[in-house]
# Entry
Amino acid sequence: MRYYWLVSFFTLLTSACSTASPEQAQVDAPIHIRWARDPVSLDPLALPNPSAIDAVSLLHLSLLPIDYQTDRYSACLAERLPEVRLVGDSITHIEYRLRPAAKWDNGQPVLATDVDFTLKLMQCPGLPNEMARAQFGFIRQVLLDPTDPRHFTLVCRGQAVEMINTSGDFPILSESALDTQRTLRALPLAFLQDWPAGKAPLPPVAALVHRYQSANIARTPGKLPGCGPYRLVEWEHNRHMLFSRKAAWWADSLRAAPFVLQAKPRYLDYLVVPDDAAAMLALRRHELDVFPNVPARVFQQLQASADARRELAFYTEPSYDVVVVGFNTARATLRNKLTRQALSRLLDPAGLLSATQLGQGSLTVGLLPPTSPFYNDSLAALTYAPAEAQALLGRAGWQRQPDGSWHQPGSPEPLALALRYRADESTFATIALQFRAAAAKLGIAVTLLPTEAGTLSMALKAGDFDVCVRTLKGSPFGLNFSIFFHSKAIGTSNFTRFGQPAADRLLEAVEVEGHDPRKRRLLCSFQALVRDEMPLVPLFFLTNRLATTKQLRHVITSGLKPGYAAQALTWARADSLAVRPTPSR
Amino acid sequence: MNLVRRPRSLAVAHWLAIGWLGLVLATGLLAPWLPLPYPAATPDLLHIAAPPTPPHYFGTDALGRDVLAGLVAGARRLVVLSLPAVGLATVVGMAAGSAAGFWGNSRLRIPVALVAWLLAAGYWLAALPARTGITGCLLLIGAASSFFAWWRTRTTGPGTGPTLAVPLDSLILGTTAVLGAIPRLILLVALAAGPPLSPTQLLGLLTLVAWPETARLVRAHMLRVRVQPFIEAAQASGLPEWRVWLRHALPHACQPLYAFVPLSLAGLVGLENALAFLGIGQAPDSVSWGSLLTTIRQDPTAWWVATMPGLALLCTLLALQQVAEILKRPLILK
Amino acid sequence: MRQWLLVRLGRAVVAAWGIASLVFLVSRVLPVSPEQLALIEMEDLSRQIGPATSNEVAASQQAVRQRLGLAAPLFYATRTTGPAGEWHWHGLHNQYHEWLSQVVRGNLGKSYLDGQPVTALLGQALAYSVPLAAGAASLATTLALALALYLARGSGSAGRTLVQASLATLQVVPLFLLALILLLLLANPAVINLMPLASHGPAPNLLVAAGRWAVRAALPLLSLVLAVLPALTLPLVASLRQESSTPYATTARAKGLPLGRVLRRHLLPNALLPLFTTLTDLLPTLVAGTVVVEVVFALPGSGRLLAEAAAAHDYPVVVAGVLLLAGVRLLSLIAADILYFLADPRLRPAT
# Structure
């Protein structure tokens, strides 16, 4: 009995001490974000799927990542944007200086030798770095500065403007974690790049590859620590991944940290939910806080429910992905541009936008979004015009037979097309069906061939199709139409097999043009060329949709994947819940 | 002695079963000409997961496909895929099992000359190394054996020359053991790690996994039929072996198949729909009851998507079980 | 006896090797190759500057092929395609020999997707599936024995007819339909939800881990048991009924023993024999069933691993899975024969 007062006194004391914790617990609560797939590997060289890219961007930093607030590249590990010097007519020098404050977890500074080591690691055979090798193969040499260990120059082959941004877009890895003996320093980068494919690698390279493989970085990223703000705490495969903010991160000491060097959430918990319906349910039950890339129908369902509107905030942002219908210009039936123009009049972009995206998206006349400064608004929008299609077919030399089919004079083959599209997307299926119905009215037989993703990609590369419906991924800075239209790329990414000398010259001029008004003129004339030749018909741009719980602040959305900035999210404080959040746009 | 099945009055359940199977068969055969209110396998994006209302009398699934059209497409797939597969599997199983049971391991003998010629043809077609040389040698061996056989017939009387025994029983039993070692679903899942299968390829695969059971059943029965006196009598009357096997032994060895074939069909229908459910080896736009049932997981509140195809599948399988019951009733000797 | 066992084991090993080799060779000659798939997905994600020429793409593909071990020739001797094809001898340096020598040493290769050793992946997945299958088998056996004893006591009562009819109906229902019905009825947020969204975090001790596993595996276990039960019960009931008309059973009843005791102590041991073959025959059904229930209920087991690897063209996992299953099946056949030996001396082969 006498201890009763003592016990109650201590209980009161401890409960008084913990009155501050509910709010603190709220601020420290993990933010649950949905992933559609498990990031199968956390290897910074491999990056096999979007979830892995998200995860690696939390663990490692690069020189110039994307700032999702402005959709531009911004200096992260680099002190400022690089200086560019053109040397001759085929070399570019890109000069960087690393931030003095940048440090690895063990206190060592991030130096130019680390950048050199990362680039050399991309060339080692036996590591899953084939994509990185192809992407950064244009960097031929790293010139180190003997006076300043943080200053270096990248010597790049070619003079494309886009190279400047891409040259800083890879995670920097630590040399001291894998190569303490500095064995790779003696080997120049170009030497490793030009090593013949089948030949056995040099002993230091082989030893490094062996160390890398035995570290199993894909599953245990802790063996190769990065200088990013987060640390992997827990990974339950196909279920969830938990990151925690490092307590002492070097960028915390910066006085004016740019947006890309801010990391506010204490814990980030990514949940793998492959099913969209299950993700919607989890969002409603408060098991998920952020649902990125919401499909159009789910978004509409959520917005229609009053309960959901009370608890969730909705954001939409135009993306840079465009749905196009492409023609195989190498086929005899489609060689004439008038035939292709005629077929383009059989599509109904406005109707398809409302049917497939429920109105969310933007129509376009070229491969650029209407908001882009290079958009050619003098081109007329395409509409469904069967009479015009018929006239154009006549002008192209097709003659309509009594049975309704179209024939070229002297050829028994009627105009019949095979349409390929990716099988598991209902958007493409609807577009294909609309095209087939419109063509049937005109007497053109269209066979639909829904194909699975791997086979489709190979069929497109081999030219095994007449018409195809697909999505082209774009970006605000990479106006690299040469991937889709240059004759060099026929057989790889130029699936329409469109290649004309005039277009090639125009594309090469755009690549090296840095002056915006001149670039606008070149791109406008290129868009007019594409409209005239019609190797593909751009239908509409897609939107990025995001749904979050209303208690999250600083939700920065962007048109680029993943569509939000995870490092800027913060919880609203308990007493400021009355403040209205940013309304959906 | 005639073996006659006296028709007994069938119960109501039996009539219902026969009626349902007839309906499914008719729908499957007439599917391309049926006037459906909405075409099959076309997504109607304005009516995603719509409850049963006109024009979608049975509703639509989570991708916007009409459920009624899907049911008809499933019936067609059954008639076009599972029925021929069962037929082929029965024929192959009958032939293989009865041959294995009838001739065993040592009773089937083929002349050496024939073996030599077959090997020569095979070697030539396979274009193996030293084609002309080895084929020539084999042809020579074949010619020598047939000459030897003809010489022996001329001197010592009728009879064949040197012969080789074909271990038919071991071969067929071994093949059935290997094919039966992996569960059928796993085998098909493993083979699906490739390009989507065309309907013919799928038909071939289903036949491949279905014939071993039939063969084992027929073989077991044939082992009992072979020692019956009437077979001995047929052999003694001078009929050639293959005729005894085909006209006398085979019909009796296939007795247990009457009741087995409906169950085998039920198993194949279940397997094919399970594959469609898992999404394995299907052309992306082919619709069947199993693929309709897959979409229920995307929208659990759409009960019409699960009940209609599920009921269709269940009724078909139950009806097949009833038919097996009817056929299992013993023969009446008259 | 020992010789017989060795012969059977030898045959089983040969059969398993044959099947796995077949799947290995078939998977390698398919037109969709893993290196192209790996690169296709990453192409969508990377921001390429400038078009990649065919040479560069071919170089990347060759690099991936070398890393995955697909650059060597396929078999000891291959034939170049075309009507005038010639056979080339490659000796021991080929993919098949490499794979076989690794398998004999116990190394089942590395997955194409993430480079993890296949043995580790299979081990993790089997830790989920083996308890599921074993639990289903034992539960089904006990339930079958109890139900058979109940049904064999008499016939004609409403309860018994109902149970027998429902068992007959269950026998034709395919497993995926059964699992789906259970999912829609019992794990449906709109109706009742017995399966909560899983809690994550490492389990503090074994008991909690077992408890979590039990909650997640309850519905899959139920569907597996219901699928396998009729095939075990109905033949046992028929066998028991047949045994109860034998003279020794009549003698036992005439001596005044209660029916239940007669059934349990005298009839059941004799009627049990066919149950062994039925049980080992049902093992492949159970294994195939785990694939379906794991996909339906989203459990991280070996069945789902196999189905997802097949869909993603991850051939090392598929081949290893097939090898494992074939081995299990063949061993179970031998186990059935051993059980027969121990149970009935009349069935032992003449040695």
Observations:
- The radius of gyration of chain B is 26 Å.
- Chain B has a mean pLDDT of 82.
- Chain B is about 65% helix and 5% strand.
